[in-house]
Specification:
Blueprint (H helix, E strand, L loop, with lengths): L1 H7 L5 E2 L6 E2 L2 H13 L6 E2 L6 E2 L2 H12 L5 E2 L6 E2 L6
Antiparallel strand pairs: 1-2, 3-4, 5-6
Length: about 90
Amino acid sequence: MSHIKSVHLGIRPRKCDRCDYEARDLFLLRRHVKRAHDRGGEKTLKCPHCEFATHFEENLARHVKAVHLKILDYECPLCDYKSAETVRD
């Protein structure tokens, strides 16, 4: 599981060349660059419960589910970590 590799083993071999972000795989690094560095303008989707804002509907839904509804469906087999969505290998 990627959670075990990145959290328990500290494996994050992909480095962002624009900031100090480190990712466990190329997909996450590319997603980070697109979301953090390549998107301009204000984040238009706002959480109705707090100050969280995003460009993406799926991020807002995931945020509300995990933070405000406290629905954490997935658990790490090695620690108490829980997540609102499955972690990829």
